[in-house]
Design a protein that fits this description.
binds adenosine-5'-triphosphate, 14 helices, single chain, alpha/beta, Rossmann fold, 8-stranded mixed beta sheet, binds magnesium ion, BirA Bifunctional Protein, domain 2, 2 domains
Length: 413
């Protein structure tokens, strides 16, 4: 009877080699940039009580109603694998008393889980980098957060992706806009998609977000938030946009951008590849790479005090697709032990240690047929090959051997 190997779970990925290097490059660049902007690191659990997400995000959102991996643990408690970071961060903020650090600039990254239809750029386990500023009501916080996102994309070498920016107004503006949208869409209810008919009562803003063909004809003439903004909300948005201009962040007004979750107020944004650009090609229809906004109501939903906050998250896989494959870093030197003598092996090992102690990436080949060892080293493409045999040593490679190698191994001079 043949043994069958179990397959990976649908919608998960095993990432290796040049693609894994791209993934690591995204994370390393994020780490560098978040330090530049002085965001502090946090690590949260991968699972939380289900209510953390249900209460933060709202029961009517796609994420909560359709996409969560929830299960009862052996003690009968309903737990959920995190589908996003913000709710868990808000929970941690409250249960650890992080209020004392407010305004708190936080950064994290890691895996997330959503039960979605897998396709290119959309997985059931995916990864995000995430940045939040908690306990800051002022529009400068939005600018800081967006400047960091823009800087990160530039450091990643992604230049054909633009910030699409909207305001959803304060609670009052949003309510007035919402009422107008309900009235407008109710008049054409029968012609809307089933999803949007359902959204009409629960979450009408999200109709604007619809990709369904049946909804498209009604979207351009839908009421605009600008007609409902309070003076304060308008002023808030003006400070955000002038701050972005001062920081050199290019942006585009996107009046229909609402984002999927209930908790957003004021600023909402997405970074989207420019039409016809290489990044747009690379991502296909899964085009948003980074999204977020201000979520002034979320922490209250979790039973905390009113706490203004703003944040974003970006898919690491999607960013890695835009970065493209990255070469695996080359070795500065490869040591070849040319025979099976104790003396050569010992000297090779000492040299390998010295190279690494001098911060030179190196590895050693000392197994397999002695005749083939040098060929193996050449294949690995190191700048230099250092050989040891029972009675001597040698170095070969590029015309100019890195002086750092001679510093690590002076006897080679
Ligand atoms: P989408 O409209 O693509 O479903 P979303 O609004 O659900 O995105 P967010 O919850 O804002 O996405 O997550 C922020 C980012 O995380 C997205 O812009 C995307 O880059 C990434 N992302 C979201 N869901 C997935 C997924 N299933 N697989 C891979 N990346 C994802
Ligand atoms: Mg989604």
């Amino acid at each position: 009877m043949g043994k069958k190997t179990p397959q990976a779970i649908r919608g998960t990925q095993d990432i290796f080699g040049a693609e894994a290097e791209a993934f690591a490059f995204v994370v390393e660049t994020f780490e560098r940039v978040r330090k530049l902007y002085r965001f502090r690191r946090a690590e949260m659990p991968v699972f939380e009580k289900t209510e953390v997400f249900a209460r933060s995000l709202g029961e009517t959102t796609d994420v909560v109603s359709k996409e969560m991996y929830s299960f009862d643990d052996r003690g009968g408690e309903s737990l959920t694998l995190r589908p996003e970071f913000t709710a868990g961060i808000a929970r941690a903020f409250l249960t650890n008393g992080w209020q004392q650090h407010a305004p708190l600039k936080l950064a994290t990254h890691g895996p997330l889980f959503r039960y979605e239809r897998p396709q290119k750029g959309r997985y059931r386990q995916f990864h995000q980098i995430d940045a939040e500023i908690i306990g800051a009501a002022e529009p400068q916080a939005d600018v800081e957060l967006l400047a960091m996102a823009d800087h990160l994309l530039k450091e990643l070498g992604i230049r054909d992706v633009t910030l699409h920016l909207n305001t959803l107004g304060d609670g009052e503006s949003r309510e007035a806009w919402r009422a107008a949208l309900v009235e407008y869409f109710r008049a054409v209810k029968d012609q809307l998609s089933e999803d949007s008919q359902e959204r009409l009562e629960k979450n009408p803003l999200r109709i604007l977000d619809s990709k369904d063909r049946r909804d498209q004809p009604f979207l351009p003439d839908a009421p605009k938030i600008d007609d409902f903004l309070s003076d304060e909300a308008r002023e808030f948005f003006a400070v955000v946009t002038s701050g972005l201009d001062a920081a050199g962040v290019k942006w585009k007004r996107a009046e229909a951008l609402v984002r999927g979750l209930d908790y957003y107020r004021h600023t909402a944004f997405e970074f989207i590849p420019d039409e016809g650009s290489a990044s747009a090609d690379a991502l296909g229809s899964q085009s948003t790479v980074l999204g977020g906004g201000r979520y002034d109501g979320l922490i209250e939903n979790l039973g905390g005090p009113a706490t203004p906050a703003v944040g974003w998250a970006a898919g690491i896989e999607r960013l890695a697709m835009l970065v493209g494959e990255r070469a695996e870093p080359a070795a500065a030197a490869i040591i070849v032990v040319e025979d099976n003598s104790q003396a050569a092996l010992r000297q090779g090992m000492e040299a390998l240690t010295a190279l690494r102690n001098h911060n030179l990436p190196a590895e050693m080949i000392a197994t397999g047929s002695p005749r083939k060892r040098r060929d193996k080293a050449v294949k690995k493409g190191a700048a230099s090959i250092i050989t040891f045999h029972e009675t001597g040593h040698g170095i070969s490679g590029d015309d100019d051997i890195d002086p750092a190698i001679f510093e690590a191994l002076p006897f080679l001079r």
